[in-house]
Design goal:
Blueprint (H helix, E strand, L loop, with lengths): L12 H7 L13 E10 L5 E10 L2 E5 L8 E2 L4 E4 L1 E6 L18 H17 L2 E6 L5 H9 L7 E4 L4 E2 L8 H13 L4 E5 L13 H13 L3 E6 L2 H8 L4 E4 L5 H10 L2 E3 L4 H8 L1 H4 L18 H13 L5 E2 L15 H10 L3 H7 L2 H6 L17 E4 L13 E6 L2 E5 L1 H4 L7
Parallel strand pairs: 1-4, 1-5, 6-7, 7-8, 9-10, 10-11, 11-12, 12-13, 13-14
Antiparallel strand pairs: 1-2, 2-3, 5-15, 15-16, 16-17
The protein binds zinc ion.
Zinc ion binds next to loops.
Length: 423
């Protein structure tokens, strides 16, 4: 979303200092062998395996072996799949103590706990990797989680985004310098705002500026995610940027061009708007939002626009649609609702929806050899659902088991599912 992430600047020094004194939550005996039994396993690439077992050593999967024993986690009553990836979240957005969207007056400690709690909520909801687009405050949180100081999803972040403001954004050379600065600050990718809002507004970066940003990022080995509507979709595709976010107003020709060029596309299914409508009182009167809760009603009209775009995108041959929710305050931990929107409201095939948050999202992140599928050599990011999303997409709400990097963070399967105990 356009509401600039700059609200959140400093943070997490508090966190790093405190966390350094805590015992690691990820400590586990190196190479301890874990076996998971599954009756239905989605491999993350669109295939289904039946009656098999996953063997894990340390943080990685070492084998898929139906005969492996003894079984440590019997998930046979559930659907087992790779941990999900959300390619577009805003970790730094949270509701403050007064019930309103937190703004510039939030204290560093409040911001820290806001982001940490968002991270925790998403992990518990089955998201083992998220891409935050982004805030400089994400960097120390990313590192704290990676070092095992806190539970949370694997985080990738843009640090500070490049916000298009026409000529004021800078010359192509200045934009290139900004990109290099983000890399130095620890960014995993570059987030670029290249156009105005969902309903109206033209491009906020010229084609030359956009070219400079995406070209420099490529030279620095970084991916580019471009917030784009209408004509900005084509411009970002032509500029060779990695992934287009949102995309309302994209024509069939634009979608086709993205497919031809291998540009990833990250449209949303509706969770974003549902979150604003559901939390209108918390957003009302904060900068960039309507003054009153009633003022949010017209946003409802955007939902059918999103569904129409998603439907067209899904029908575009070869278009690589990545799962990204644009999770803002109130949406973290509910990310999976966007699967339901896609399948129920936009006719997306349930398996395609799963793959978009597994192997395809991993590929878009340049991490297909590490996450997004279940197979030997990959990180042991494994979740289990009570139900099968292929015939009941609401099963994505019932995440009862979460393992990330070989560590189990959630396992309520046994209490809730007596069937899981029978052999
Ligand atoms: Zn966003």
């Amino acid at each position: 979303m356009m509401r600039v992430a700059k609200i959140i600047t400093c943070i997490l020094a508090v966190l790093s200092a405190a966390a350094a004194q805590q015992p690691s939550v990820q400590k586990h005996p190196q190479n301890k062998r874990i076996v998971i039994a599954a009756s239905v396993m989605l491999d993350g690439k669109g295939r289904v395996l039946h009656d098999t077992r996953i063997v894990i050593e340390g943080s990685r999967i070492v084998a898929i072996d139906p005969k492996a024993a003894p079984v440590d986690y019997d998930l046979r009553a559930l659907t087992v799949l790779p941990g999900w990836i959300d390619a577009h979240v805003h970790l730094a957005w949270f509701f403050a103590e007064n019930g309103k969207l937190a703004g510039g007056d939030a204290t560093p400690a409040e911001r820290t706990y806001g982001a940490v709690s968002n991270a925790w909520a998403m992990l518990m909801a089955g998201f083992t990797t998220v891409q935050s687009v982004g805030s400089p405050a994400d960097v120390p949180l990313r590192d704290a989680i990676a070092h095992g100081l806190l539970p949370g999803p694997r985080i990738l972040t843009s640090a500070e985004p490049l916000t298009g403001r026409g000529e004021q954004t800078g010359t192509p050379d200045e934009i290139r310098a900004f990109v290099r600065k983000q890399k130095e600050a620890g960014a995993d990718l570059i987030k670029i705002y290249a156009s105005g809002g969902m309903r109206q507004g033209g491009m906020t970066l010229s084609p030359e500026q956009l070219n400079a940003a995406c070209d420099e990022a490529r030279k620095q080995g970084l991916r580019t995610l471009v917030h784009a509507f209408r004509e900005a979709v084509r411009a970002a595709t032509v500029a060779g940027c990695t992934e287009i976010e949102h995309g309302l107003g994209a024509t069939d020709e634009d979608l086709k061009l993205m497919a031809e060029k291998g540009t990833y596309f990250d449209p949303q299914g509706g969770l974003l708007i549902e979150t604003y409508l559901l939390n209108a009182d918390k957003y009302a009167g904060t900068p960039f939002f309507p003054k009153t809760a009633d003022g949010f009603a017209p946003m409802k009209d955007i939902l059918p626009m999103m569904h129409e775009l998603m439907r067209r995108a899904a029908k575009t041959p070869g278009l690589k649609i990545v799962f990204g929710t644009d999770a803002v305050a109130g949406a973290h931990g509910h990310n999976a609702e966007d699967f339901i929107d896609r399948v129920r409201d936009a006719g997306v095939d349930p398996m395609a929806a799963m793959v978009s948050a597994n192997s395809l999202a991993a590929e878009a992140l340049g991490m297909a050899d590490q996450i997004g599928s279940i197979g030997p050599g990959l990180q042991a990011d494994i979740i289990a659902l009570d139900g099968d999303p292929r015939n009941d997409i609401t099963a994505v709400r019932r995440v009862v088991f979460v393992m990330k990097g070989g560590v189990v963070y959630k396992n309520v399967a046994r209490e809730n599912h007596p069937l899981a105990l029978s052999r």
